[in-house]
Specification:
This protein has ten helices and six strands. It has a single domain (8-125, 193-258), classed as 3-Layer(aba) Sandwich (Rossmann fold), CATH 3.40.50. It is globular and about 50 Å long. Helix content is 45%, strand content 13%.
């Protein structure tokens, strides 16, 4: 786990007053995913980034089993350790899944959440979705490692610097990590969470995002009371890196309303 970063704006206020922004990255990535957000928000908010278990500078873990539940518990424990009484969880892709689980476990701490390239876990998806598992596993297994990492980056980012980051982080994490966490995300979608989240929510995606994720985002917004939907122009799945200025503007507007 990577420790708290950018707490300059929090020193003069108590932990009960300060708003903590907890940024949670996606598969194979790390805290560097949100470098532009740390720089933009650290003067006003308490900004915290993490390296999820098995990612970045965090310790290696056995990825077998329900990864998302364990990782979400890490997020809750981090909020406890930081005495973060008012938190906004910002999750990208897998990070969105973890933020939804963490918010379910500690709703009294979470005053809002932001979901970038994520899907709603409520209501759960049909268990028929699990029929995709063997096809996903076979497709990933058949790709040579270098080609898989390049494809992984090309299908998630537009900008050369974002693609280079994703390709390098995927290579460092390895094919097995991509496979296990992708299958775990499919399982998460069919398990879901027990109830709809009730806090204000910003749902966003890049304008070059995959079509099915765009549709799921629109459906999520339509069914989620108190939510806003933002489309980040000139951006793909990792929209906060492809177009940090536009994403930061959408995030600041959301935070202005709830803070």
């Amino acid at each position: 786990m990577h420790g708290p970063r950018g707490e300059a704006g929090a020193a003069s206020r108590s932990s009960e007053q300060v708003l903590t922004l907890l940024f949670v990255h996606g598969v194979t990535m790390d805290h560097r995913t949100f470098a532009s957000q740390v720089e933009a928000f650290q003067e006003r908010f308490r900004v915290v980034c993490v390296d999820l278990p098995g990612h970045g500078r965090s310790e290696a873990v056995d990825l077998r089993g329900p990864y998302s539940m364990r990782a979400a518990r890490v997020l809750v424990e981090l909020l406890d350790a930081l005495q973060a009484h008012r938190a906004v969880l910002v999750g990208q892709s897998l990070g969105s899944t973890l933020c939804q689980r963490a918010a379910t476990d500690c709703p009294e701490r979470v005053v809002g959440s932001v979901h970038l390239g994520g899907v709603s876990l409520y209501p759960p998806f049909s268990r028929l979705l699990r029929l995709l598992n063997p096809f996903v596993a076979l497709a990933i297994a058949l790709f040579p490692r270098k080609r898989l990492y390049a494809l992984f980056a090309a299908h998630k980012a537009l900008r050369p610097h974002t693609r280079a980051y994703l390709q390098a982080s995927a290579s460092a994490a390895g094919k097995e990590t991509i496979l296990r966490l992708t299958l775990d995300m499919l399982r998460d979608m069919t398990q879901g969470i027990p109830r709809q989240l009730e806090h204000p929510m910003l749902i966003c995606h890049g304008d070059h995002e995959a079509g099915f994720l765009k549709r799921l985002a629109s459906r999520w917004h339509a069914s989620q009371p108190g939510s806003s939907l933002a489309v980040i122009e000139d951006a793909h799945h990792i929209a906060n890196q492809d177009n940090p200025r536009a994403f930061n503007e959408a995030l600041m507007q959301f935070l202005d309303v709830i803070s």
